[in-house]
Amino acid sequence: MNETYLWPIFIAIFVLAMVFDLFIFQRKAHVIPLKESLKLVGFWVALALAFNAVIYFYLGHEKGILFTTAYLVEYSLSVDNLFVFLAIFTYFAVPREAQRKVLLWGILGAIFFRGIFIFAGITLIERFHFLIYILGAFLIYTAIKLMTQKEIEVEPEKNPIVRFARKIMRVAPEYEGAKFFKRTNGLLIATPLVIVLIAIETMDIMFATDSVPAVLAITTDPLIVYASNIFAILGLRALFFALAGLFYIFRFLSTGVCAVLAFVGVKMLLSDVFPIPVLISLGVVIAILGGSVVLSIVLPKKEKTPALENPAEKEKPKKQPK
């Protein structure tokens, strides 16, 4: 089958998935428990695997392995991003029942902007091949920077787009459930949820500067790159609520993500000298991510114990008044 015919299949699966999400999974705003979020993660992963099987059957095993590798890279890079989303929700004190709606609209925006980055990136790489070395060096630099820097401080109020949005629109002081707008004295006023959505969207655009080049290092096939990105993004919300419940368990996962970025960067730099086969790439990515999860379980984070107080310092004699 010609790859062109797979685009309608991908679009049909995407539309059906969004219908399920909007009208079945999200019939009402509610706090998603860990068990439900894990089931949703399973659903979105199964959907990606189903499309992966279609690619494998019609385009061959090499294309199928490329999709699997690209999907794993995109999904692993999404883990770090979700922790930043959690920090944004905490910063703005977003009600938990409204978080799912914000992530939905944020993901729809991400689908649009990722499409622009991906197709522009493919066009540039095909026209100016030397860019692949620049992107490879950039990924290695990013991996080293992420691994050596301290914990990222997220300050959405310093985001220039968020500050500009506050200047050009009226923003209510309080949330109105999961609504983005409300009417007050006949005027349509934005709720703080709009500001949160803008912060999420701008952060995702920043994240795309890492994830899109990483996937382009695997392949420049437009269908595989875009579909792997979209299927990973579709499962982000479910993954977010699962990770929110398992936040401190996999403490070495962020290190594993940095290692994946570095490996992909090296793969880009060696693409013309020593091309790494797709099976080896897939094995390396799985080994790094799996190893970081196993290491997190074997070596869990130790809880800090309070320092013993010196009784002599604790009970100082009171100064007697003269």
Compact summary:
The chain is mostly helical and 322 residues long. It has twelve helices and two strands.
Walk me through what this model shows.
There is one protein chain. The chain contains 12 helices and 2 strands, in the order ααααααββαααααα. Strand 1 and strand 2 form a beta hairpin. 71% of the residues lie in helices and 2% in strands. By secondary structure, it is mainly alpha-helical. The protein has one domain. Helix 10 runs antiparallel to helix 11. It has a two-stranded antiparallel sheet with strand order 1-2. The protein is globular and about 65 Å long.
User: Which range best describes the helical content: under 10%, 10-25%, 25-40%, 40-55%, 55-70% or over 70%?
Assistant: over 70%
The fraction of residues assigned to DSSP E strands is: under 5%
The whole-number mean of residue pLDDT values reads 76
Q: Enumerate the spans where pLDDT stays under 50 for 5 or more consecutive residues.
A: 305-322
Number of strands: 2
Separation of the first and last Cα atoms: 98 Å
**Order of strands, widest sheet:** 1-2
Give the number of helices: 12
